Fold this protein.
Amino acid sequence: MDETDTRAAPDELLERVAAGDKASYAELFDLLAPRCLALARRVVVSRPLAEEVVQDAWLQVWRTASTFDRSRGSATTWVTTLVHRRAVDTVRHDSAAARRDLAYEARRPTGYDTVSESAVDRDEARRVRRCLDGLTTKQREAIDLAYFGGRTYGEVAGDLAVNPATVKTRIRDGLQRLRTCMGGL
């Protein structure tokens, strides 16, 4: 007879565990843990999380071994069912936590001071208006039509009845003046 024949069957080991036999628990663990870890890894994916699942499930095996009923199935099935349930519960818990976190983030107030943001926006608007007021009438007119009116150089030239090259010059000069006024932004 070789060594593998002297090992107890998982069912016998689990019944001994139910009686508080720590050596049988260690032997059953050595026998089934690799299968349990592989199962947990398939469900939860992460190895560290799978190890945690297996640890929790084996703690449950120790605590609830007395509920094992050989007539309802094998010890291997009973233990792997505990591991599978624990792994599925872990995935469900983590998914629910992720959904809660997303919902919480969506409801959180903005991370900045809206009053100071509004004040900065008003200040910027005043600076832009002041700089636009510093343009010549012809530069302002060409920029208004091109940038605020959404027209092309050709359309602006047609509206103003001037050469397209003249429109480009007015816009270029006006933008240079705005850039200087705004502080080189």
Observations:
- Residues 145 and 156 are 6 Å apart (CA to CA).
